[in-house]
Specification:
6-stranded antiparallel β-sheet; alpha+beta; two-stranded antiparallel ribbon
Length: about 250
């Protein structure tokens, strides 16, 4: 979990440009160069190469190219977790009527791998491919609780514990106490820690050594995910689903 000691500057610049364009669609050369504090000529050369390779498109300004869609789908299709989990995610969404996610982790960050919306699910800004912070989500906390403590410590040291709401855990000691309770009961709760008014429950998907490789979560409005729905009904559904996924991953 350490930063690269000697990053390749040209590669860093290219990815800085790509990430900037992703955030500020239809950006221009001068704007990109100024905000990234790079020479305009350097930015222009990188943009030309990225357009030529299909990673950006130019139409007045610069936008992401659909080449990224191809790579992203390839990346997801290469994960056995996705292949075993997506049918269960669809099934849970239909059964509960709520939003269901399969989440995984990469480089200490959360990745929304696949999601499905039930008939009653509410809209949020989460989408497939979202990169976030594990401690802010029920599924993410379920993953952290089933990773080695030193690994969790490295993640906290690297990224800190950024807040999203007044209820987000931002203290390291509190987080580790929280993770211990999650390990004991087998699933995690999110009570307005990522989005005000939203509750969620998440259960880890573990490998043969008990280490989490992902998690499933069910989320919905706090008024619906109250009482036994949150603490008993949905955890039972999740634990059954993740058990099937784990068996399929082990013997598939």
């Amino acid at each position: 979990m350490h930063e690269v000691a000697n990053p390749v500057t040209t590669v860093e610049t290219a990815f800085e440009i790509v990430e900037y364009v992703a955030e500020y669609d239809d950006a221009g050369v001068s704007e990109i160069a100024a905000d990234l504090d790079r020479a305009k000529s350097t930015v222009h050369r990188h943009l030309g190469t990225l357009v030529q390779r299909g990673y950006l498109v130019e139409d007045g300004g610069y936008s992401l190219g659909l080449r990224f869609l191809d790579l992203g789908l390839d990346a997801r299709d290469g994960r056995p977790l996705y292949h075993e989990a997506h049918a269960k995610v669809d099934e849970l969404a239909e059964r509960t009527g709520e939003k269901v996610w399969c989440m995984t982790a990469e480089n200490g960050r959360s990745i929304h791998l696949y999601g499905a919306s039930g008939a009653r699910s509410v809209r949020t800004d989460s989408r497939e491919g979202d990169i976030g912070y594990l401690h802010q989500h029920a599924a993410g906390k379920a993953i952290l609780a089933h990773r080695p403590p030193e690994h969790v410590g490295d993640i906290v040291e690297r990224y800190g514990l950024p807040t999203r709401t007044d209820d987000t855990i931002t203290d390291g000691d509190e987080l580790f106490e929280h993770l211990e309770r999650i390990r004991e009961r087998g699933y995690a709760f999110n009570r307005e820690e990522s989005i005000p008014g939203l509750y969620a429950v998440g259960a880890p998907i573990t490998d043969d050594h008990g280490v989490a490789i992902g998690a499933l979560s069910i989320s919905g409005p706090a008024n619906r995910l109250a009482g036994e729905t949150l603490t008993e009904e949905f955890p039972e559904l999740l634990l059954g689903a993740v058990n099937e996924i784990e068996i399929n991953l082990s013997y598939g």
